[in-house]
Amino acid sequence: MTTADNGQSIVLTGEEAAFVRQALAACSRLLSLAILGGPGREALAEAAMQADDSRPLGKVHYDVSLAIDYVDFARPAGSTR
Q1: Cα separation of 41 and 21, whole Å?
Q2: pLDDT at 49
Q3: Measured CA angle at 4 (ends 31, 58), to 5 deg
Q4: How far apart are CA 35 and CA 81, in angstroms?
Q5: End-to-end CA distance of the chain, in Å?
Q6: Would you list the DSSP string of the chain?
Q7: Is the pLDDT of residue 2 over 60?
């Protein structure tokens, strides 16, 4: 993983990675409910369009799911690709 501000690589502990994954999974569940027309759909869709690069809700959900995969299938610390 690299930091956004300077591009340096970082290493997360297992506990930190689990915390990040838990937060991403919660976001994914909220986005899924919103996409299916659940409560807050309009507010989440508007927030997604305002954030970052005006991506639609479905694209944000895809990116969150991909980020979960990055955490789930991260290479062990110290290994190279």
Answers
A1: 23
A2: 72
A3: 20
A4: 35
A5: 13
A6: -B-TTT--B----HHHHHHHHHHHHHHHHHHHHHHTT-TTHHHHHHHHHHSTTT--HHHHHHHHHHHHHHHHTPPPTT---
A7: no
